[in-house]
Amino acid sequence: MILLPSQINIFRMLFLLVTLCFLKLTDVLYVIGTARKQFKMKKIILTAIASQALFISCEKPKEVKEQPAVAVSQKKESPDFDMLLKCSEYSYDEKYFITADYGCLYDPKGINPYGNLIIYLVPKNKTVLNNQQIEAETQKVNRLNIEQLKEQFEVFVYLTPKEFLNYNEQGDPIYYHNGAYKEEVYTHTQNKWILTDSINIRNVAENQKEQKWRESFILSKTKQ
After folding, report:
1. CA dihedral 91, 96, 102, 105 (to 10 degrees)
2. For position 87, what pLDDT does the model report?
3. Where in the chain does DSSP place strands (E)?
4. N or C: the chain end with fewer CB closer than 10 Å?
5. With bands split at pLDDT 50, 70 and 90, how would you rate the model's confidence at 74?
6. Do residues 143 and 112 lie in contact, with contact meaning Cβ atoms separated by under 8 Å?
7. What is the reported pLDDT for 206?
8. Closest CA relative to residue 97, chosen from 148, 38, 21
9. Dihedral, 108, 103, 117, 174 alpha carbons, nearest 10
10. Residue 63: what are its φ and ψ, rounded to 5°?
11. What residues contact 193, with CB distance under 8 A and at least 6 apart?
């Protein structure tokens, strides 16, 4: 069969259209395939991330060990009055012995770095001396050493700390307490000096209050 030129042209156009359609379809399939691969890859990545998150959340939480708190001592360091027990002569007053005159005055360059002290010795046997015994017993007490004093007496040290003292080179005494001051009483127990009580004086008018407080405390220790 012989085709006319016009028919040949028609076949050529149909062949071209089929070819173009086939190429477009191939491109579409390629795009779809690429998209599927990318989707699968993203799905795999997302699945891996989710699995890792789940694994982490299921792990046993690590225990955080608490660091021990640093103990900070708030207590005032206990002074050592042993060497001061022989700083002055003692005299007898009713049922106890007491440091003579002003007691042991503050001496920053000497043996007393604490403040002004008055020391009371209360006999442990609570013996009351008569007038004939006082002089001999007082001499005996003043010959005792530090360990003997602590062994035979209850020792009470009244301290006006140095921070409450004023200095006057011409004064008598040269160190004296302020109008407002604090006084502490220590006793020797279990081989150390223990703060037993204290009083705060706000002004000169309250000095009598301090004297009554001190005397009443000592008298309570001398009762048999």
Report:
1. 110
2. 92
3. 90-93, 96-99, 115-123, 153-161, 165-167, 175-177, 181-189, 192-201
4. N
5. very low
6. no
7. 87
8. 148
9. -40
10. -75, 130
11. 78, 79, 80, 81, 157, 186, 187
